[in-house]
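ASSEMBLY PREDICTION REQUEST
Request ID: AP-0331
Submitted by: J.K., bench scientist
Number of chains: two
Total residues: 650
Priority: normal
Notes: Please return the full assembly, not individual chains.
Input sequences:
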Amino acid sequence: MNSLEEYKRLIEDSITKYSSGTEPENLHNSIRYILNLGGKRIRPILVLMGYGVFNDHVERALHQALAIELFHNFTLIHDDIMDRADLRRGHLTVHKKWSEPTAILSGDLMLIKAYELLCDAPPQLLPPMLQAFNTMATEVCEGQQMDMDFEQRTDVSEEEYIDMIRKKTSVLIGAAIQIGALRAGADASEAGLLYEFGVNIGLAFQMLDDYLDVFGQSEKTGKVEGGDVLNGKKTLLFLHCYRHADEQSKNELLSIYENRTSKSNAEKVLAARELFKVTGSDKYLYKKAEDYYHIGVNLLKSADFQRERIKPLLTLADSLMQREH
Amino acid sequence: MNSLEEYKRLIEDSITKYSSGTEPENLHNSIRYILNLGGKRIRPILVLMGYGVFNDHVERALHQALAIELFHNFTLIHDDIMDRADLRRGHLTVHKKWSEPTAILSGDLMLIKAYELLCDAPPQLLPPMLQAFNTMATEVCEGQQMDMDFEQRTDVSEEEYIDMIRKKTSVLIGAAIQIGALRAGADASEAGLLYEFGVNIGLAFQMLDDYLDVFGQSEKTGKVEGGDVLNGKKTLLFLHCYRHADEQSKNELLSIYENRTSKSNAEKVLAARELFKVTGSDKYLYKKAEDYYHIGVNLLKSADFQRERIKPLLTLADSLMQREH
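STATUS: Completed
Returned structure:
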């Protein structure tokens, strides 16, 4: 069985080989740029691990792994335009370094190339792989639109929020494993179970992310500490706290999130932390992340897979939950 | 054999049936909006006609026809953002009516849905159809980037310009017919020949468009007369004229295209027309359009297809060349 490092090396090699397009320069340079900004490559690794549940020759799923990585980076480029973000992993975003038109177009081309790579497989495997990919891709777009719509609303329910992050981030984690499995010839129910494992781990991962954004040790992240608070991003921490706080705390919370306060950034984050602790929103979110993690892990363990073959998936899921940043 | 009106009705019915998505509202409303702005539906009709060369049951290619129409509208939405266009067919563009983020996202979703519809076909047909679609889609993106790059340059050659419009507009015409043919089970060489017919007709069509923009009877178009001149769009008319004009005419031409003149819009267009006539650029472009048209038509006529089966394609190509607006 391959180690995480071996999986990652396979992915990095194949990205280097792949991202060597030519004309027009602006278009291909920007694609090379975003693909080489680094990152943990969790999603393409999950494709290989999904394949590895059924077959040892994980290198046969490399084009599908690359397809998932290209799709992920397509969403990053377009989301960064929509969110008016200047930086991505500490570097200029594509629309800042080149231009918005080039960023729109590079994203479009990456989506097309994702399909091209996905479909580099035996014809009989294409219908289920395409269906999995199309469903996922549609939901990711819907999730991003929901995220933007929610910014204009103050009455978002927890269920709606969880549905949004499920679509925006978790289904891609699930589909990565599912597509790897389908590429190996898995049947729909086996692949579907791996998808559900991935979606639950993805939800746990996103919730832990939201938790660590406010309560993590920021020196390791490179992110602004409490960026979600300062950007007014209403994660479960906010939604839970707002629902359970008294009137005065509610007002204070809103004044922080809507930037109607004379507090410094650091003071805002500290004040929000206190409010979250008083309502128990920190513990609530952390517990919820753990719950989704356990649902996913139990699903996988109780299925009829060889223990040795699902070990890489369980190890990766575990390592995602162990991080403190 | 179906008439053009019957083909169009089939397409309109299937667009109406298709464009009835639900949540999130902003996303699906914007897609419905652009799909129902009208247009001649030439590209999806060409898919049906390509299918009709081999098989009478053209309704079986309706999802592929819709895929091509969705792809076309995806490029319109994203191009309108890049070109900062406010109007499309006399109505507000999607990014003006909603917002840029929603326009980016609706375009993305339409591209995904295009793949979904394209691949609604027997598995053994998917590899050639996907390859045709991916090659076309890649070139369309490259063509749009070239078009934007050319705006910054004054030394674009005729060959480069023709390569750009081939990629930006003609390959989609070719691929529409090709994909219809492949959907009917045509072999690669038959489908390839129909593609070449389409590309040549597409080039003729685009060149006639550029000609009519300056020399057409504008009351019928709804476009600003001479929009290309006023927007500084350097089509073959400009490139040919600039290469053949004397120094004084060159300067006058540049002053019009770079908006360094006190002339009114109408005066600019009239002056440009005169310059084009002096260098014979009008005749040159019109002749070039006719040449490509004849290359395409001869290719098709000399191939081994039943005359009756290619008649709709020839009739449509002919009608595209007969328009005066």
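REVIEWER COMMENTS: The interface with chain A takes residues 23-24, 26-27, 74, 78, 81-82, 100-102, 104-105, 107-109, 111-113, 115-116, 119, 123-124, 126-127, 130, 134, 137-138, 141-142, 144-146, 148-149 of chain B (CB under 8 Å).
SIGN-OFF: pending second reviewer
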